[in-house]
Design a protein that fits this description.
By secondary structure, this protein is an alpha/beta fold. It contains 18 helices and 25 strands. It has an eight-stranded antiparallel beta sheet with strand order 3-2-4-1-10-9-11-15. A seven-stranded antiparallel beta sheet has the order 5-6-7-8-12-13-14. The N and C termini lie close together (10 Å). Bound molecules: 6-O-phosphono-alpha-D-glucopyranose. The site of 6-O-phosphono-alpha-D-glucopyranose has 15 residues, from helix 9. Homodimer.
Length: 602
């Protein structure tokens, strides 16, 4: 979490930093700040609690500055406040830093080196900048050596950008675990947590690796390791269309991204089809899955929920057993593994720290791994043996929608390719079915007013709500409840409908909203029975069923799609319900409280 930017070059830096931070706001929005150096080498610090928009109002427009660093914060150490907002400065004001990550030994470092220093904030970050200043002042190190020594002393995760006001023509950067890119251009260079934030300036980026330090001037970038050895690394082109980063005519990114799902389904078919029109995936991946005796899917949040559908697809289409694990649990409570595991990491951002922690262990053990991600070049993509891209386009709303459906679609494509590679008949033609699904999603989205109305009748005032389903519908209700919680703040549970009467039904009282998803022919009648049990106890029931399984009483009937792919369609009403509930409650749909899209701390 937290986003950082830096720019040194030939243009006025204020707007570059602020619009970069606007793009990075998905990483946290508790506070924001910039530090800029003007033509007379005078430094100016601006910080504000809350959103970038508030910071923008504070920045003095009249300053012309050509170098600077900026930060948007998701608070870990210290409450959201102006004092705790980055950039942080050393006591003398000479050094200024922005940081994404968590310093685990900041208290020990403070005790060992900085007992006499007065701190202005309660952040772990201020320790870094005070430590650099201490090494410069007490040990007479020059800035780069003090920076390196601080890095060696600190434990934890960090992406850092540093300014020394005695040498303002230079920016310094370093990272460990947290992501950081360097961008290059004619007469300028940039630092950024992701490529999107600086793509308006350049499409050429260089990855910085853990344990490396970069020194940037407007005309050069020098990367070296901690021993001082220079590292040469080519830049790569980030294929991001800056136009994709806007909301267009939509009021919120979330509704734009919900609307984009039919196009994503069609794009995925194109991207994974070969010249003969058959779905194709790198045979090395297929061979490794064939070799393996069990697939382990590891993920967090919405990606974890997509993983459950993926398990079903892999098992039913390929016959290989699959398990799904929360990354944060797997890392510290590792299950007993089979002899030949194959790991799939699902991560929209490709940066989630918990998932990465597991990948590090998997790599250490030498097991094969595949990352499914929306972000080429992301950490999980670089560090896994293989990558498959989601091709969903930038997902900016904090609540994930199109990445969920894209993950399921890519897992279906993978499963079908594995089945064919193994010489097994696939029970479905995935490319054909995804075409049907794209049309079906359009039909449901066209009915958005129905879901707006249902949100008002069922969820406008309630404090809690239940989604229920069985089998594949259970997997979807887990995601439906998460979406509702994230954006509307309604306390929601996605519950296996058969489990209701084993305790949870005690919570049902007059008007408690209970939304049932019924797309499965075998278990559907049982869920309908469970819906009636809660109706008898006063619940405000809403049944969303699939054509062929519908009854008069149902609130909405979904177009029929293939049994194995029903989550791709049944999740759409639940995304719309979450969106409209949040909208009617006056919430900031795209930036729900306390959340961040990319969770880069464990
Ligand atoms: C955060 C986001 C969720 C996301 C989860 C996993 O919690 O708010 O929307 O599902 O991280 O992110 P990933 O990028 O790994 O899919």
């Amino acid at each position: 979490m937290c986003g950082i930017v830096g720019y040194i070059g030939n243009k006025d830096v204020k707007e570059i930093l602020l619009s970069g931070l606007d793009t990075l706001e998905y990483r946290g929005y508790d506070s924001a700040g910039i530090y800029i150096t003007d033509e007379k080498n005078q430094g100016h610090l601006f910080k504000e609690k809350g959103r970038i928009a508030a910071l923008r109002d504070k920045v003095d427009e009249s300053i012309n500055a050509y170098s600077g660093i900026g930060h948007t914060r998701w608070a870990t150490h210290g409450v959201p406040s102006v004092e705790n907002a980055h950039p942080h400065q050393s006591t003398s004001g000479r050094f200024t830093i922005v940081h994404n990550g968590v310093i685990e030994n900041f208290e020990e470092v403070k005790d060992a080196y900085l007992a006499d220093v007065h701190f202005h904030s309660t952040t772990d970050t201020e320790v870094i900048v005070q430590l650099i200043a201490w090494f410069v002042e007490s040990e007479e190190l020059d800035t780069i050596d003090a920076f390196k020594k601080a890095i060696v002393t600190l434990k934890g995760s960090y992406a850092l950008a540093l300014v020394d006001n005695e040498n303002p023509d230079t920016l310094y950067a370093a990272k460990n675990k947290s992501p950081l890119l360097l961008g290059t251009g004619e007469g300028f260079n940039v630092i950024s947590s992701d490529a999107m934030a600086m793509v308006r300036e350049t499409s050429q980026f260089i990855e910085l690796m853990d344990g490396e330090v970069a020194t940037l001037t407007k005309d050069s970038i020098k990367i070296e390791d901690l021993a001082g050895e220079t590292i040469e690394r080519d830049s790569y082109t980030a294929h991001i269309d800056a136009n994709d980063l806007g909301k267009g005519t939509y009021p919120y990114y979330m509704i734009k991204e919900i609307d984009e799902q039919p196009a994503v389904m069609r794009k995925l078919v194109q991207q994974y089809q070969n010249e003969d029109g058959n779905l194709e995936i790198n045979e090395d991946i297929l061979a490794e899955v064939k070799e393996s005796d069990r697939v382990y899917i590891v993920a967090c949040g919405t990606s974890y929920n997509a993983g459950w559908v993926g398990k079903q697809l892999i098992e039913r289409i390929t016959g290989t057993p699959a398990e799904v694990h929360l990354a944060s649990e797997f890392a510290y409570n590792t299950p007993l593994l089979t002899k030949k595991p194959f790991f799939i990491f699902l991560s929209q951002s490709g940066e989630t720290a918990d998932s990465r922690q597991v990948l590090v262990q998997v790599n250490k053990a030498g097991y094969p791994s595949l990352t499914l991600t929306n972000v080429p070049g992301s950490t999980l993509s670089r560090e896994a043996k293989y990558t498959l891209l989601l091709h969903a386009g930038p997902e900016i709303a904090v609540a994930s929608t199109k990445a969920y459906t894209a993950q399921i679609a890519v897992l279906a494509i993978l499963a079908e390719c594995v089945a064919k590679f193994n010489g097994v008949d696939s029970p479905l033609d995935v490319a054909h079915e995804l075409g049907i699904i794209a049309n079906a999603i359009e039909t449901v989205i066209d009915d958005h007013e129905v879901f707006e109305h249902l949100s008002v009748t069922h969820l406008s005032t309630s404090k809690n709500a239940f989604y229920i389903g069985r089998g594949i519908d259970y997997y979807v209700v887990m995601e439906a409840a998460l979406k509702l919680k994230e954006v509307s703040y309604v306390q929601a549970e996605g519950w296996a409908s058969g489990e209701l009467k084993h305790g949870t039904i005690a919570l049902i009282e007059d008007n408690t909203p209970v939304i049932s998803i019924i797309t499965d022919e075998v278990s559907g009648p049982h869920t309908r029975g469970n819906a009636h049990e809660v109706i008898s106890r006063g619940a405000n029931s809403m049944i969303i069923s699939m054509e062929g399984l519908d009854r008069q009483e149902d609130a909405y009937v979904l177009p029929k799609v293939h049994d194995l792919l029903t989550p791709l369609i049944s999740v759409i009403p639940t995304q719309l319900i979450a969106y409209y509930t949040a909208l009617h409650r006056g919430n900031d749909v795209d930036k729900p409280r306390n959340l961040a899209k990319s969770v880069t701390v464990e």
